[in-house]
């Protein structure tokens, strides 16, 4: 049987060269936290947008509050020194990753001195990459697009004067589309689309030593997605099972984070963050249809791609300085490890380690209304791919390339207390 196109991963389309965090996690869920490169995000709780990182921090939000914001993502990705399967040099490819806006919003309401409820809307995963259809690696990816939306009802409880705990129920919608050419011909195209809604859970705890010092712990569970959709192609039937309904399992990773916050005096605050993302749950991608090798529960395996992702670490430190009674300056630096091993890089995910350089401003317009601005420049280490012919046993054409990647992030938000 000639296998289907090299679907280098339905999950991998979420990742790609210039996603803002390793793998396909979009960390940009709070403009305030972005100003400190997300250092102390699990302990900061400066407004209710921090609940994405630690739901327990909602107990610090008094009354009813609304936070609305978004991040404008400006990526730069260039592939150069590209060679095809014959060793011939090919034209460089620029503007692989496209700009996008990731919105976020949270509303919280304090029921009493102990219990606070919340509801958030976030885009934790998402990207668009697009190569020229004639590029040398078209078998391994042309267009990759994902849209996600997660709504999370939350509750936080102040168990003691110092300890708060909380929980949330993330309800996540994922829609994905990818395209490439098929079977080493480069003349036929294939498109895959699928979507799903699935549920996970979120836990958090915060301990306040005093009014100036606190630590936080946050955990977001793995979410087991089973996307359903279809694949279509203009290729003849003899090249494989290219026109049928499909399903694919994609497990988004569990995340554990711990953060610390300390207010030195009326002017200075310092914070730090560590996060472990358990990417090893994404070890392979199996795509099932109605025709192919018999699989479980009456399905048929039409493609299996090894991924072999590894767990990653994120480290961040930050500092804030109160300029006057209305303005606060934030600074931060972070180091983010890649989830993809060098041997497993593909054109859809030439992921690499990256450095974050962040700054932000908080402006208190009034006692009830504040604005936050955050800016981050992410510099990724150089990445390379080297895919041999017929990898992985699908008849797809080999390709090698070098990648230069960076991202600029601009975040804005408004917080209002009723």
Give the topology:
Layout: H1 31-34, H2 41-44, E1 64-84, E2 89-90, E3 100-110, E4 115-122, E5 127-130, E6 143-158, E7 163-168, E8 171-181, E9 189-199, E10 202-210, E11 213-220, E12 223-233, E13 244-252, E14 255-263, E15 268-277, E16 284-289, E17 293-294, E18 300-306, E19 312-322, E20 327-336, E21 354-364, E22 369-380, E23 383-387, E24 399-417
Antiparallel strand pairs: 1-2, 1-3, 1-24, 3-4, 4-6, 5-6, 6-7, 6-8, 7-10, 8-9, 9-12, 10-11, 11-14, 12-13, 13-16, 14-15, 15-19, 16-18, 17-18, 19-20, 20-21, 21-22, 22-24, 23-24
Give a description of the structure.
- There is one protein chain.
- This protein is mostly beta strands.
- Helices cover 2% and strands 55% of the residues.
- It is built from two helices and 24 strands.
- A hairpin with a 2-residue loop joins strand 10 (202-210) and strand 11 (213-220).
